[in-house]
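Human:
Take a look at this sequence-structure pair and walk me through the tokens.
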Amino acid sequence: MVFCANQALPFFKPIDREKGVVLSHMYAPQRAPEVPYYSSFFGEIGYQVCSLPDSVGDFEGMGDALWHTGRFLLWGGHGFRSSIAAYSALRDMLDVHILLLELKDPDFYHLDTCLSVLDEDTALVYPGAFDRDGLDLIHTVFRRVLYAPEEEARSAFAVNAHCPDGHNVIIQAGCNQTISTLRREGYNPIEVRTDEFLKAGGSVFCMKQMFW
């Protein structure tokens, strides 16, 4: 349960101020027992707890479903750990627009490994994880798109960073080129060491869960 982004997708509806969470259908059966703990936690803090129908297949929460900062808009990654059918169900359940991105490289099996929403206008990406249509969509929606180099994205999960406030970016230590890019664009990178977790396939964003 260290990688706590995967078991649920919390949501906040800005019009009616409704807070809730959609529980995941984990890709790996070994991780399925993690989900009930998130159901209990969110229920205890007053969230509406929602479940997807079994027929939609796999869905791994905020590993693949990323909220666009400042908008009621969801980015959805599919191809390895989450199904397109899950996003159709989410769209109907939450009445939200969802922009789908197909993941092409098995090293980037979750969307949060290759797309980081830094603020409403800016994304950090590893472009090699997407096809041309997906990359064009990202460039269309974001005013600024920053690139992480392949070596840092692939071996050090540079894009699996988290920007909670539009300025400070928590990122794996040693991603020097990505950190230089962030500083040049006015962000404040905060380096942390997640080396042991990199061995299991995750870094900063994988180890946090957002709620309001």
Remarks:
- The mean pLDDT is 97.
- The radius of gyration is 16 Å.
- The CA atoms of residues 40 and 49 lie 9 Å apart.
